[in-house]
Amino acid sequence: MSEVTDKPTASADGIPTADLTAPAPGMTGAGRLAHGNETYLALVWRRFRRSTMGMMGLVLVAALILMAIFGDFFAPMDPKATDIAFAPPDHVEFAAPDGSFSLIPYVYPIVETGEFDPVTFQPLTGPDKKNPTSLGFFVKGHSYGLLGLFPADIHFFGAVDGRPIHFLGTDKFGRDILSRGIVGSQISLTIALVVVLLTTTIGTFVGIFSGYMGGRIDVWVQRFVEFVLAFPQLPLYLALTSLIPVTAPSNVFIAFVIGVMAVLGWAQLSREVRSKTLALARIEYVRAAIAVGSSDMRIIGRHILPNVSSHLIVAVTIAIPTVVLLESFLGFLGFAVKPPLISWGLMLQDTGTFSVIGSFPWILSPVVFVLITVFAFNALGDGLRDAIDPY
Predict the structure, then answer these.
(1) 369 pLDDT band (50/70/90 cuts)?
(2) How confident is the prediction for the chain on average, in pLDDT?
(3) Which of 11, 81, 181, 261 has the fewest beta carbons under 10 Å from its own?
(4) Residue 226, Cβ neighbours under 10 Å: how many?
(5) Residue 241 has what pLDDT?
(6) What gap in Å lies between CA 241 and CA 260, rounded to an integer?
(7) DSSP assignment, residue 288?
(8) Average of pLDDT values for 113-117?
(9) Do the Cβ atoms of 199 and 322 come closer than 8 Å?
(10) In degrees rounded to 5, what are phi and psi of residue 337?
């Protein structure tokens, strides 16, 4: 009886062969199967970590979701409280009133200096060094409901003495823009996530059903998809949302807007899923499953849907910023969210005139929230696409 050794064996012509049972270099530890191979999720994660933009997008997306869930906690001011209209952003310095360096930042309100511009004769403004406000973390402020359930008054950051501060200035009603932008992320991101969830579900079901069934069913389903894609979406959005009366409750209006976006947004994804289903239906293991008598639902659930899921993940991360931009545009036109609710699109209504933008440029601050969201989800989608399908 021969001994079992770990040494490489030799072939008939004397050429040594590799030991196929030995784990490959670097293939041990977490994320490996029992026989030493790397799992698919671990492989995708390892590829994804190499993408700097993808990791940056993941961190930003996580921060945005956290900000939306705990919006009132992160908002330093009451988003509905009024103060001085069109107040400029306060001046923040790491300097004490005596001019010495301080680890704790101070906020100095912007006031008129009493001097005038020699050309335009407009009053000049500057930081008021005589009235500093010390900042801090986990300070007391306005009361709110944490997650809508638990009463609380602690905020992540703000003025230690409870004085009003405006890092991004105020709008035409004197409401803090930063706080409204943070709280407004709840509505904007909720609309985007719900719309993408509905469009992904409908588009995936229609695409797989049409591609797998084929024949006349596929022909008629695709004609209906082309009918939906043929509509000019923007005029139809405006026409449908205008059907809701102004006196309708805000929740009803948001639900109608979500329904309109979902009805008009699933068709393109169904086309993409159908094309992948047509290719997967001709693969040998799917034909073998059909030959042994597997049901259609089992074939779709076990063989087709898992192979389409990678494309769906990337499609979702790319579709979310599209919906955010659409909601912002419709909100700017007044067709998305109605007061007293807050969204980024609704905040952009104040920028409707050039005179306001020229005199109070900080009123454009909500655009920064939209840009960060679009960049974060696009970067995350690009990183996932390269990690899932590197070729």
Answers:
(1) very high
(2) 81
(3) 11
(4) 11
(5) 67
(6) 8
(7) H
(8) 75
(9) no
(10) -125, 140
Match 């990690």 to its residue by tokens: 387
- Other Cβ atoms less than 10 A from the Cβ of 31: the count is 14
- Report H helices in 4-107: 40-49, 52-69, 71-74
Q: Break the chain down into helix, strand, coil percent, rounded to 5.
A: 55, 15, 30
Pairing state of beta strands 123-127 and 110-116?
A: antiparallel
**Segment 310-327, tens digit of pLDDT:** 888 888 988 999 899 888
* DSSP-derived secondary structure for 343-381: -HHHHGGGG-SHHHHHH-GGGGTHHHHHHHHHHHHHHHH
For the CA atoms of 280, 282, 288, 294, what is the dihedral angle to 10 degrees?
A: 60
Spatial CA neighbour of 156 closest among 173, 185, 181, 135: 135
Domains of the chain: 86-170 (no CATH), 180-388 (1.10.3720.10)
- How long, in residues, is the chain? 391
What is the distance between the alpha carbons of residues 93 and 43, in angstroms, rounded to a whole number?
Answer: 46
The number of CA neighbours under 13 Å toward the Cβ of 166 is: 25
Query: What gap in Å lies between CA 356 and CA 371, rounded to an integer?
Result: 21
- What are the structure tokens assigned to 359, written together? 């005199």
Query: 3-10 — which CB contacts under 8 Å span 24+ positions?
Result: none
Query: Mean pLDDT throughout 156-179?
Result: 89
Residues 304 and 310: their CA atoms lie apart, in Å, by 11
What's the whole-number mean pLDDT along residues 52-64? 93
